[in-house]
TrEMBL record, chains A, B:
<keyword id="KW-0813">Transport</keyword>
<comment type="subunit">
    <text>Homodimer.</text>
</comment>
<dbReference type="InterPro" id="IPR038076">
    <property type="entry name" value="MgtE_N_sf"/>
</dbReference>
<keyword id="KW-0812">Transmembrane</keyword>
<comment type="similarity">
    <text>Belongs to the SLC41A transporter family.</text>
</comment>
<feature type="domain" description="CBS">
    <location>
        <begin position="140"/>
        <end position="203"/>
    </location>
</feature>
<keyword id="KW-0472">Membrane</keyword>
<comment type="function">
    <text>Acts as a magnesium transporter.</text>
</comment>
<dbReference type="InterPro" id="IPR006667">
    <property type="entry name" value="SLC41_membr_dom"/>
</dbReference>
<keyword id="KW-0479">Metal-binding</keyword>
<dbReference type="GO" id="GO:0015095">
    <property type="term" value="F:magnesium ion transmembrane transporter activity"/>
</dbReference>
<dbReference type="Pfam" id="PF01769">
    <property type="entry name" value="MgtE"/>
</dbReference>
<dbReference type="InterPro" id="IPR036739">
    <property type="entry name" value="SLC41_membr_dom_sf"/>
</dbReference>
<protein>
    <recommendedName>
        <fullName>Magnesium transporter MgtE</fullName>
    </recommendedName>
</protein>
<dbReference type="InterPro" id="IPR000644">
    <property type="entry name" value="CBS_dom"/>
</dbReference>
<keyword id="KW-0129">CBS domain</keyword>
<dbReference type="GO" id="GO:0005886">
    <property type="term" value="C:plasma membrane"/>
</dbReference>
Length: 450, 450
């Protein structure tokens, strides 16, 4: 359980590889979980990783490959022949197999599939590869336990013993009619509790949740977590049973979704981790920074436009970063609440009510902050009353505007079927910076009259 | 599957409640999933929700209660007697029961537990309530299927039929010795495939992952998703089997963790959704805004300190929001990558290497952005070369510093066992704003010599 990749372990392993002590290496990994071996492979030199993959049994290495980081896996697969990859693939469930083959070039894909000995397995993988990314079809596995409604319990148990060997986890047994259409489900428990001569048709549960093969994977995740399902069958438009999705796949979908939202909020355009190359990291980071720079430029121009006020009211210019920062922070808070509400389907009530509530809320927060600001500004920094008042009124106005923008931009994006998470982070801070500064100086002009 | 809470449905329901058509209401909900009924209860008036809860069978309402939003649930439970709550609780699995009782006041907790008829169930719930929040013990359920290693397969199947009725999902059958210590596991499949007269001791799998009852729940989630487990047994320090955690509980833990990180990054101190009261929303939002205001104040003072430069170089002050915004954005990007790396345990390599990489990366990004800035500033806005150079050099320096702060603050917090997600969002933007502005003016002073 508590295996840790220590530097002693890695050193020992390196030495064994250097000395080509194959049996000792095998023994070293004997009781180590494949997920842990995958971590070891991330730590050792690349040549050593290849050596280990070629040395261990494909039963073990196929599992290791599915656990590896995509980059590392691709580099390793580049060093294997199509036949060697096919051997690994033949040990995998169809969903993992399709995911990994899908990462290869079109030509390699064909070669690997042609090298597979089990024709049925190959056909299943080809079918899975044909579904669009991020659909139920791309997520499902072909492995499932299926019985016909006309079978008896005894016959069922006999055949399940055969089918179940290929299915690592039996969540539900799916019942189909003679046209392969899904009609119901059974649990192993139901089968064990039933009498041997009963017909499946008499004992199955006919209410069975299923998703269409073209359903969006995030929607499938929502359905499965809402209804607490551990597996869900996937059907085509004619209700023919095609595959099943299990909850561990959904855990991955949920994680990816959460990671992506988090990254968008932080201004990263693609999934990167800190070990990626500087080029990849730049690709993820630079677009948003250029957007922010462009936005910054607009604020420079706005400030330049009000430059004449500088000689009379220099303090005004000291407050611009404060106003901009508050606008940005308020905007991010509001948009984050909405983005999460949209993700959890928990937004209710009319737009008008929301507008009213957000306005009252930000008025309330704005008042507290303005009082703090005015008293501190006048008492500590000794600004004159009019400047203090200008900053305070601007702060309230900016907070209200920023929270309204933060609230409604994601709602509008969502209505237009654009990922609302795009509206968080740099996008909202940049636009709120600009608007905040503009409003601030307009109010200042009104009150101070420069 | 695709039940939608329509306004027609809610209207029809309201009318039926008004007319006290109890059997029609029951019929209306007959085929509706409890998770959907929970959504309906969120939509209708509160009195109507109470009416529905009191009307439907406790078998159904107990499930509905577990699905409700905590606020709504508490309000409903406030309207039920201890005995009525006990009836609901008696239909629930121990983990859900303990979660819901745990939300009540200490006195209500005692009353409800005393009102439970099933003494064993009550004792189980009391045990679960005794574990600390966010531990494996607080997450687990007492329901599981357990067999002794001395039993035969046939005896096992017979007894499992009894135990399994109480356990909604049988993931694994846990094998214990006569001192109740966990020694291994079995799947239902293994049992079905085995011969009737075989001993459990001969067929069980002795390698079984387990977690200690005091283990942190996020750690349990990591273990279960790393090793692709659908259930994990929980043991005490003597390896005595206490309960089990299933993957659907882990889905909730992962979701909560992701939500909390996201909220911290957005500057929200507690879990709020947009339907919460203005007071709750203020409590979540105001602390970070006050922090940002305080930070803004520091930047006002810094700018004030360099106020003398204003007459000679007014343009400098136009660029402060731009510099501050870039510092904030870069800081958030860097910290988000680290926070995610820490959450996924994927940070590898030495701190020095990371420092070097982050510096090169930000130097590279900074150069591109500075060239863009200088050319735009001089060509479009017509600034003089020295001011352009000052802004450009400052931008590069600020980007490097901001990315280093964004990288190392979360790492340091994590080493000190503080949630690194605290370092994202307003905290990093505010401190980077201040440092960015300070550095900018120091460099300006050096180059322009005011």
């Amino acid at each position: 359980m508590t295996f840790e990749v220590t530097s002693e372990f890695v050193e020992k392993l390196s030495k064994l590889i250097e000395l080509r002590k194959d049996s000792a290496i095998k023994k070293l990994f004997e009781d180590v979980h494949y997920a842990d071996i995958a971590e070891v492979l991330d730590e050792v030199d690349f040549d050593e990783a290849i050596y280990i993959i070629k040395l261990l049994d494909s039963e073990k290495t196929s599992e290791i490959l599915t656990e590896l980081d995509e980059d590392t896996r691709l580099r390793i697969l580049d060093n294997l022949s199509a036949k060697e990859i096919a051997e690994e693939i033949s040990e995998m469930d169809t969903d993992d197999a399709a995911d990994i083959i899908g990462e290869l070039s079109a030509e390699r894909q064909r070669n690997v599939i042609n090298a597979l000995e089990d024709i049925e397995h190959a056909a299943d993988i080809k079918e899975l590869l044909s579904y669009k990314d991020n659909t139920a079809g791309a997520l499902m596995a072909k492995e499932l336990v299926k019985v016909y409604e006309t079978w008896t319990v005894a016959g069922c148990l006999r055949r399940i013993r055969g089918q179940a060997k290929e299915v690592s986890r039996v969540h539900s047994i799916y019942v189909v009619d003679k046209k392969e259409r899904l009609v119901g489900r059974l649990s192993l428990k139901d089968l064990i509790v039933a009498k041997n001569d009963q017909k499946i048709a008499d004992i199955y549960i006919s209410s069975v949740d299923a998703v269409n093969v073209n359903e969006d994977d995030e929607e499938v995740a929502k359905i499965m977590s809402k209804y607490d399902l551990e597996a869900i069958p996937v059907v085509d438009d004619n209700n023919v049973l095609l595959g099943r999705i299990t909850i561990d796949d959904i855990v991955d979908v949920l994680k990816e979704e959460a990671d992506r939202d988090y990254q968008l909020a932080a201004g990263l355009t693609q999934d990167v981790d800190s070990d990626d190359s500087i080029l990849d990291l730049t690709k993820a980071r630079l677009p948003w920074l250029i957007l922010a720079l462009f936005g910054g430029f607009i604020s420079v121009s706005i400030l330049g436009g009000f430059g004449d006020a500088m000689s009379k009211f220099p303090e005004l210019f000291f407050f611009t970063p404060l106003i901009a920062a508050m606008a940005g922070n308020v905007g991010v808070q509001s948009s984050a609440i909405i983005v999460q509400g949209l993700a959890n389907d928990s937004l209710r009530g009319s737009l008008f009510k929301r507008l009213l509530k957000e306005t009252i809320l930000s008025l309330f927060n704005g008042l507290i902050l303005s009082v703090l600001l005015m008293s501190a500004g006048m008492l500590i920094l000794g600004f004159n009353f009019n400047v203090g008042l200008t900053v305070a009124i601007s702060l309230i106005s900016v907070i209200i505007l920023a929270s309204l923008i933060g609230t409604f931009v994601p709602i509008i994006l969502d209505k237009k079927n654009i990922d609302p998470a795009l509206a968080t982070g740099p996008f909202i801070t940049t636009s709120n910076d600009i608007l905040g500064i503009l409003i601030y100086f307009l109010i200042a002009k009104l009150i101070l009259g420069f």
